[in-house]
Amino acid sequence: MTLDLLADLVSRAQRMGADAADALLVDRTAVSVGWRMGRLERLERSESGDIGLRVLIGQRQATVSSSDRSPQGLAELTERALAMAKAVPEDPFAGLADPDQIATVFADLDLDDPVEPDAPSLIEAAARAEDRARGHAGITNSDGADAGWARSTVTLAASNGFAHSYSVTGSSLSVCVLGGTGADGMERDHAFTSAVYRGDLRTPEDIGDEAASRTLRRLCPRKVKTCKVPVIFEPRVARGLIGTLAGAINGTAVARGTSFLKDKMDQAILAPGLRVIDDPLRRRGLRSRPSDGEGLATRPLVLIEDGVLRSWLLDLRSARQLGLAPTGHGVRGTGGAPGPSPSNLYLEAGPVTPAEMIGDIAEGLFVTDLIGSGINMVTGDYSRGAAGFWISDGQITHPVSEITIAGNLIDMLRHIAPANDLTFLHGIDSPTLRLDGLTIAGR
User: Fold this and answer.
1) Beta bridge pairs of residue 404
2) What is the four-CA torsion angle of 77, 81, 83, 87, rounded to 10 degrees?
3) 2-216 carries CATH number 3.30.2290.10
4) Strands 345-347 and 428-429
5) Measured CA angle at 179 (ends 176, 183), to 5 deg
6) Strands (DSSP E) along 291-362, which ranges?
7) pTM of the complete model
8) For 325-373, what is each residue's pLDDT tens digit?
9) Most Cβ neighbours (<10 Å): which of 141, 245, 323, 438?
10) What are the sequence ranges of the domains in the chain?
């Protein structure tokens, strides 16, 4: 039924003057609860359905979205899209995929959990997580716990012959608590779990214990003097470096010349032996997809091999700009044109444990939190506020805060050393990372 509706919409656009068109429909149902200080604070359910129509007249394109599926609403949507396409400048790189480029086989990625949780079960999970966290001595307040579930059905049809629909679910649970008192200083931290299938989530008790432990160990932080020492990034902050790397190899940024890696293809940008992989076909992967947002087939892709950059993340438009083949990384919403984005992206694990990685550091920093976004994607200059723990004689000692980490990403990436603790938790993931010789600005 949904595919028929979109096929009719695309045909209507062509009859009314479009040379090509595609239509995307996203139906979404979501439930979320918020629980704080032992009481239900929020219970929300939303159901939405948005249609995005993209039309092309020659090299002019426009995208218009609407939630109105009535015949009159779809007719007006088509008229608006065509009128906009006639008014915008030509884009020499715009266009749908050629018929021989579109996906025809779709992997079963097990992305749709058939069990929809009811509100009481979500409330119970949030309550158990917060109760467990607040039960730890030293926890004095709470920002609350949140539990959620959502299902999205994504349907795309295009005049080039592509037509496909799939559903994906996601569940999550998080809790954030505070420790200490106003007189002695307070700290907060959180724990989080997410999965395609709710049964794959960590237990509320695990999340509560982790949130409390992370908060309590941050109490009474000290300042450190400005210095240059080895820095260890735990996985939850190390993944930010991998996300920044993804932004730097994004085809749109490369084509515009706004990436510090724009001239680094086939050059070493990581240490020898390291690999960065994007795998959209991971079963139950948080960012898995059987095809991309332009109807192209998706496949695992080694972006960096033995430290050498081998591929950009490319949608059709950026691939045409760069004179390359697309990599199946186009993503889009109902309100705009596609753009490149990673799926399940990760840096492969290394050979040593985090403890072994820390063991030979006489003085260093173990980072558990990064603050701000002081990253210049054009030059690679990096400066971010940080908090964590000081390392002395190979051991993690006291908490530290009010410091800034500074460097340049071109140099930083070349000196990354990964530990062996990679786990797939977020969609962009990294093991613990060590970077030697970073500047820490303190007191």
Assistant:
1) 385, 441
2) 150
3) yes
4) parallel
5) 140
6) 301-305, 308-309, 330-331, 339-340, 345-347
7) 0.94
8) 999 999 999 999 999 999 999 999 999 999 999 999 999 999 999 998 7
9) 245
10) 2-216, 221-443
